[in-house]
């Protein structure tokens, strides 16, 4: 009887130890945000972000395809020959008089390449020259973290998971009866 009690105690202790170790490990397949790192950011285009349409990632019209104005062109160091297309980053202005106070960060999606400008020094206009890590943000995204007059600001950034629900929603009979191709319509209802 004593040996079965000791065996049970040992098994319980052993399993509890294994569970404690496993619970402290990161689960494989789960994305964890990268640590905050230093970079710089500029902006391109105007307040409408119309100049950011298209781009090296091939997303076309960023409004129609769901990206809006929270986008950025990445320096080739981050762009990684296009493998970074669609990745998301949290960006916060860092230690500049141009930073907006009370703004923890903004989130952008990589939709374009900020090409190197070999005719300019990396610290004087060649912001996207390797090995520099740089975000050339759509102007509306940049203006969430800093005053546009700054031109360029130091930032902290980290890669995060892109937000998606990965679900398909099918809705029947949602357009008005008089709707035709080429027309838009509005509603006060939304999913969720």
UniProtKB/TrEMBL annotation:
Keywords: Cell wall, Cell wall biogenesis/degradation, Secreted, Signal. Gene3D superfamilies: RlpA-like domain (2.40.40.10). It comes from Quercus suber (Cork oak). It holds the Pfam family DPBB_1. GO terms for biological process: plant-type cell wall organization. Its main location: secreted. It is a peripheral membrane protein. Residues 54-160 form the Expansin-like EG45 domain. It is found in: Secreted, Cell wall; Membrane. SMART domains: DPBB_1 (SM00837). Causes loosening and extension of plant cell walls by disrupting non-covalent bonding between cellulose microfibrils and matrix glucans. No enzymatic activity has been found. Residues 1-29 form the signal peptide. This is Expansin. InterPro entries: Expan_Lol_pI, Expansin, Expansin/allergen_DPBB_dom, RlpA-like_DPBB, RlpA-like_sf. Belongs to the expansin family. Expansin A subfamily. The keyword Secreted applies.
